[in-house]
Design goal:
The protein has 777 residues and is of the alpha+beta class. 49% of the residues lie in helices and 15% in strands. The strands form 5 sheets. It has a 4-stranded mixed β-sheet with strand order 1-4-5-8. It has a 4-stranded antiparallel β-sheet with strand order 2-3-7-6, with no helix packed on it. The radius of gyration is 30 Å and the shape is elongated.
Length: 777
Amino acid sequence: MTDSLTSDELTFRDEVRAFLAAELTDEIRLGGHRTSGIFSDYEVGIPWQRILAKRGWAAPHWPVEWGGCGWTPRQHDIFASEMAAADAPKVSPLGLVMAAPVLVAFGTQAQKERWLPDLRNGVSYWCQGYSEPGSGSDLASLQCRARREGNEWVINGSKIWTTHAHRATHMFCLVRTDSSGKPQQGISFLMFELNNPGIQIRPITSISGDHEFNQVFFDEARVPADALIGEENQGWTIAKFLLEHERGGSSAPFLRGRLARLHESLRDAFASGHADSEHEDITLTLANAQCRIDALHAWEQQVLTARIGGGAQPCWLPAAPSMGKVLATELKQYLTELGLSIAGPYGATSLTVEEASAHTLPVPEESVFATRAYLNDRAASIYGGTNEVQRNLIARHILGAEVVEPVVPTDETQAMLLASLQGWLQDKFPFDKRAQMIATPEAMAPLWQGLSRELGLLGAALPEHLGGMGGGLPEQMLICQALGAALVAEPYSSTAVLGATLLQALSDPAADALLQGLADGQVRLAVAALEPAGRTDLSRVQTRLHNSNGQLNISGLKALVRGATGATHWLVSARDESGQLRIGLIDPAASGVQRRDVHLIDGAWASELAFDQTPVHAVLGQADATAALMQAWDTATLAAGAEAVGVMQALMRDTLNYTSQRKQFGQPLAAFQALQHRMADMYLALVQAAAAVGACADVTGDSPERRVERVSSAHVTVLRAARLVGQGAVQLHGGMGMTDELAVGHGFKRLTVIEQQFGGVAQHLRRVAASRSGLGS
C-alpha cells in the first residue's frame, strides 16, 4: 500500500504506528491475539477501547460533533490496516458501530447526551436483543412484548444468541408493542440498562467451547419510558437501518491480519525446512485467500468512498450490507479452514489456547487457536441474518436494478469518451452483425477505422506530444470494458494496449514515430511474445537473433499472435547472441515468414508465425527487454480484465432479463430461490472482479514487484468470476444458452479465451505466492 500513499497519508500512517508502539501493551496484544471469537473478550476489548478513546480514535466513523474524526476513506483504511497489522484487539462493534448510529439518527438530544459519551469512552458495554427462540432469521416474527404502564415499559419474553450479554451493562432491543397489523408494523426499539429487576441471563456455550452467547429472559422487567428510540412501532425501520451497520463495515484489514498469521503458522508448522508438496499446496491456497482479500478490500473501499466520500453512487450500493456480509463472513470461514489444514493432527485437541503451552510438553498454540476459530466461525454465516437470506436480498435487488457501470470512476471527459464509444458500437456493431464482422480477419477493418478516424481513441492513453489524448490505463480500461460489452473482437488491445505500452516501456526514440502513427490510425501493431512450447511464459523464448553478412535476421516460432493479420508492424521477442531478450521490429511482408491464420472460438483471429532468416528492421531498446515486456503484458492483462468485466456485465444483464421473462411451472424462472442464489453469487463475483480491476488503475506507479502481485491478484479474481458468470449465464438460459443465436454463448466463449490468454489461475496464483513465500513463478 505504501507505493500509492500521499505524503499526508504517510504522515498519518506513521502517527498511527507511533501510537500503537506507545499504547498497545504486550498484555493487551496477547489477549486480542488469543481471542478466537467474533470480537475481543471484555477483559481485553474495553481497556483497549478506553485507550483509543483517550486518543480520540475510539469512534472515527461517528459524526465529528460526537467524537468522530472526519477522516477520508483512505485514512479509515490506513487506520484499520495498521490496527490489524499490529494485532490490536478487535473492539466490540455492538455499541460503537451498531447502537451509536441508531442514537445519532433516531435518538433525542437528551438520549444522545446520556449514552453516546459513555458508549464512546468504554464506560458502558452493550449487547443486542434481536434474535428469539424459534424465529431464526425471521426478525419480524419476534414475540418479546413490551406494554406501556405510566412512565415505564414492562417487558416479557426472551432473546437468544445475545453476544456478551453476561458482560454487558446495556442492551438495545426490539420488542413487540402492537399485534393488530402486519408483523413489521408493531415493533418498537428500546435501549436500557440490564441491571433492572426481572432480567435474567443464561449462558450458552458454543461448539468451540467459548462463552459468547447467552439467552436473556424478561419477566415483568421494567425500564424507563424514555428507553424508546424514535416513535412507538417505528422499530422495524430502525432495525433495518441498524442491520446495514451490522452487515457493513470494513473487514478486509482484519482478514489480512488473519492471513499474515496463517503465513506465520505455516512457517512454524514446516520449520524443519522440509517444504514438501503439502507445503506448496497450502502456500498456493493462501495466495488464493490473498486474492479474495484484495478483491474484498477494493470493493469495501468503493463502499466507504460512496458513503462518506461523495460522488456517484454505485448501482449495487443498496445491496451492499448484504453483499458485504456474505463476502466477509464466507472469506473469514475460508481462512479458518486454512488454519485447520495448517494445524494438521494437532487440530484435534480440545485444549484452550492458554493451556496449549502451559506444560513441559507444549502443544502448538496456533493449532489450538485454529481449531477454536474454525468451530467458532461456523456462526459467521448465521448471525446477522443467514447468508441464504442475504442472497435472497441481493437477488431481489439485482432483479430490478441496473448492473452495468464503469470499471473505474469517471470524470466528465472520460464519461463523454465512454458514452460516445458505447453509442457508436451500438449503432455500427450490433449483435446481429457480429457473424459477418468476425468471418474473416479483414472484416474488422471498419472497426479499426472507426476507432481511429471517427472516435480518435487509439491514442487515448498516449501523451499529447505523440498525438494522443494524454490519458492512461483508466482510459484503456474503459475502452476495453465497452468493447467487451459489445463483444467486439481484437485488435484494439493487441495494438493500443500491449503494443503501445511495450514501445513506451522500451524507451527507444525510434518508437516515437510508430506511436504517432498508431495514434492517427496509420500503424497497427502485433506483439509476438509466446512460443508453442512456452505456454504463457514470456521467458521461454527459443527464437534467435543472429548476424548474417551484416544483416540482422531472426529465426524461430511464435504462437497465437493476435492481430498479426492486418498489422503493419510486428514486435517479436527473441534472444540475441548473448542470451538477452530483445524486441525486433519486423515487416510482415519480409522474406522468410510463414503465417497460418487461426480463427479462435471467441471470433477473434490469431496467427502462428515461423521465421527463417527473416530480416529485422530494427532492434528496439538498448538492453534486455524482459522488464519492458512484462510491464506491457501486465497492462494488457488488466485491459483484458476490464474487457471481461464488460462481457460479464452484459451476460448478467441478459440473464436477469431472461429469467424474469421466461416462465416454467407457471412462474418466472427468477422466482425460484435456487436460481436467485445462483444469480446472487454471479453478481457477487462480477462486482468483486470489477472492483479488483478498477483498483489497479494506478498500478503504473508501483514498483515492478508490487505491480506483478497486484495484477495477478486482480486477474485471479477476474478469471474465477469469468468461469462462474459465464457458466451460470449459459445454464440459466437453458437450451438457448447452447446456441449461437443469442449473445450469451458468444460472451461465454470470449470469457473462456480470456481465461487462458494471459495465463490461467494457477500461473497467477504462483506469482502472488512468490511475492511472499519464494515459490517460483
